[in-house]
Design brief:
alpha/beta, eight-stranded mixed β-sheet, Rossmann fold, 209 residues, two-stranded antiparallel sheet, 10 strands, 8 helices
Length: 209
């Protein structure tokens, strides 16, 4: 599968490496360092697969959206329309004042609103980036929670996430990303499926509106 990375930092860079190792074609973009993009592409097997966010969108069937939250709009402006694309959103809503959306709402829903032509699935954001890099393909595997409103997009996203060595757990609609974003009960809490089975059912219903 052709996968474009927009935001090749802690999460995007590590996820891209794992996807390349799994046999996917990966295109890297949006980093402060072109040398880093070039090196990531070379490590993935094709040193030409790096460039601008717009080039990543044109290349990709699936997009890993992973810029810092404070640079989100800059990244989206550079990427342009993502109509028809599946977007795996890994963004955590950190600002200079710390995390936002602590009480209600999610960055996932905000980002989906900025990409009306794309289909968004939240994933990876709750896993510490060093765990993505070092604890993939454990036995038993760590859980990667996903949230989204489109079943077909989630099926494709689930395969992408599984290919990076995690056990996929579908939490449900996109608003359930409330639990995986900062201050959510599942944020930065590594667990196996056995542990998740004891925790997820105890989460209170999310109040919306």
């Amino acid at each position: 599968m052709k996968i474009g990375i927009i935001g090749s930092g802690n999460i995007g860079g590590n996820v891209g490496k794992l996807l390349a190792q799994a046999g996917h074609e990966v295109f890297y973009s949006f980093s402060r360092s072109e040398d880093k993009l070039r090196q990531l592409a070379a490590d993935a097997g094709d040193e030409s697969r790096w460039g601008t966010p717009a080039e990543a969108v044109a290349f990709a069937e699936v997009i890993i959206l992973s810029p810092p939250y404070t640079e989100l709009d800059t990244a989206l402006d550079a990427a342009g329309p993502m109509d028809g694309k599946i977007v795996i959103d890994t963004v955590n809503p950190y600002t200079a004042r710390g995390p936002i959306y602590a009480e209600r709402g999610t960055a996932a829903e905000e980002i989906a609103g900025k990409l009306p032509g794309a289909t968004l699935v939240k994933a990876y954001n709750h896993i510490y980036f060093q765990h993505i890099a070092r604890r993939n393909h454990e036995n038993p595997p760590l859980v990667a929670f996903i949230s989204g409103d489109d079943a077909d997009a989630k099926a494709i996203a689930a395969q992408v996430v599984a290919d990076t060595g995690f056990a996929v757990w579908d939490l449900g609609p996109l608003y359930t990303a409330r639990w995986t974003e900062p201050h959510g009960a599942l944020f930065n809490t590594p667990m196996t499926e056995d542990v998740a089975r004891s925790i997820v059912p105890t989460l209170p219903e999310i109040q919306r509106g």
